[in-house]
TrEMBL record:
PPR repeats lie at residues 85-119, 188-222. One of its GO terms (molecular function) is RNA binding. This is Pentatricopeptide repeat-containing protein. NCBIfam families: PPR (TIGR00756). Keywords: Repeat. Pfam families: PPR, PPR_2. GO terms for biological process: RNA modification. Signal peptide: none annotated.
Length: 242
């Protein structure tokens, strides 16, 4: 059980700092392990001691409830926080995505803009995942991309990968390729795999094969299921591994 005497005076700034750090780590662990009981116990203690309105802790509480797919808890935390910073809004967007509430996630992003809250790379990568599921012909994805360019976030690896994915899902292969070419330095394995997946899904076999050679030159190897899918769809002996 959590006891007040274990943490000292909750009104002491130093104690607040230490306690916040401890519970950020524990809440992250609860979210990763889906430890509902401990997470709820921590939230109850934070409510009792007056820590629950802290923006940093709130973002991790929203993340915890989001991973546990308990939207009521996530919304309660969002509604009761004193200051809704970028992390809090982004955690809420991610929480909606986990519940497959993609339209809600996009609406939160728009509300965030109306409130004048600064967006970061995590915000963009989260909402772009929702855009890829909207079925609106890529409209909201292009809107978000315009925001990305405005703040100069297109060179971030998470954003780059999310852009490739959303354009690929919407069938805009050329736009996905442009996103892939934005920054060579920012490319992660996930970006390469997302681009390869896009080529395969839309029957661009020659481009997929060329990309495989580029990956090999870069010292990268695609996941075996993805490589086998290229072989199956493109049906070329040149794909046989050495």
């Amino acid at each position: 059980m959590l006891c007040e005497e274990h943490f000292g005076d909750p009104h002491d700034d130093k104690i607040k700092f230490v306690v916040s750090g401890i519970f950020v780590c524990v809440l992250k662990a609860c979210a990763n392990t889906l430890d509902w009981e401990l997470g709820m116990q921590i939230h109850g203690w934070l409510l009792k001691m007056g820590f629950s309105r802290n923006a940093v802790l709130t973002s991790f509480l929203i993340n915890f409830y989001g991973k546990c797919k308990f939207s009521v808890g996530a919304e309660f935390c969002f509604d009761h926080v004193y200051s809704r910073n970028t992390a809090v809004w982004t955690a809420r967007i991610t929480s909606f995505c986990r519940e497959d509430e993609y339209e809600g996630a996009v609406n939160i992003f728009r509300e965030m803009g109306r409130e004048g809250v600064r967006k970061n790379s995590y915000t963009f990568s989260s909402v772009l995942k929702a855009c890829g599921q909207m079925g609106d012909g890529g409209y909201c994805g292009r809107q978000v991309h315009a925001n990305v360019i405005k703040v100069g976030a297109e060179f971030n690896s998470y954003v780059q990968c999310a852009l490739i994915d959303v354009y690929g899902r919407c069938g805009f292969v050329k736009d996905a390729s442009r996103a892939f070419e934005i920054s060579e330095e920012a490319r992660t394995d996930a970006c390469w795999n997302a681009m390869l997946t896009t080529f395969i899904q839309h029957g661009f076999c020659i481009e997929a094969i060329k990309l495989l050679y580029k990956m090999k030159a870069a010292g990268l190897v695609p996941p075996e299921p993805l490589f086998n899918e290229v072989k199956s769809i493109c049906g070329s002996r040149i794909l046989e591994q050495d």
